[in-house]
Write a structure and sequence with these properties.
Layout: E1 8-12, E2 15-22, E3 28-32, H1 39-42, E4 52-55, E5 60-64, E6 77-79
Antiparallel strand pairs: 1-2, 2-3, 4-5, 5-6
Length: 80
């Protein structure tokens, strides 16, 4: 849930070299990666439904999706 208003930095267990930060304003961004070109980091903060960023060398992406009021149990974010 990106709407909690809490800053949090994390990585995925299988990709500890790729680090994400969730910001209090509800945005998320790649902040570290061992990939050569850093395009994922250059994508900046994502905050609106439909925005996404990918780190192709590490085969991971983040995408903001809208759960909407009709689906409160749906995710706000997909990391794949």
């Amino acid at each position: 849930d990106l709407s909690k208003g809490v800053s949090q930095t994390f990585s995925l267990e299988q990709l500890p070299e790729v680090v994400f930060t969730v910001y209090p304003d509800g945005s998320i961004a790649f902040v570290e990666s061992d990939c050569p070109d850093k395009i994922c980091i250059d994508a900046g903060r994502l905050r609106r439904a439909g925005q996404f960023a990918a780190c192709l060398p590490n085969q991971v992406y983040i995408k903001i999706v809208s759960s909407g009021p009709e689906n409160p149990d749906e995710p706000d974010l997909i990391i794949g």
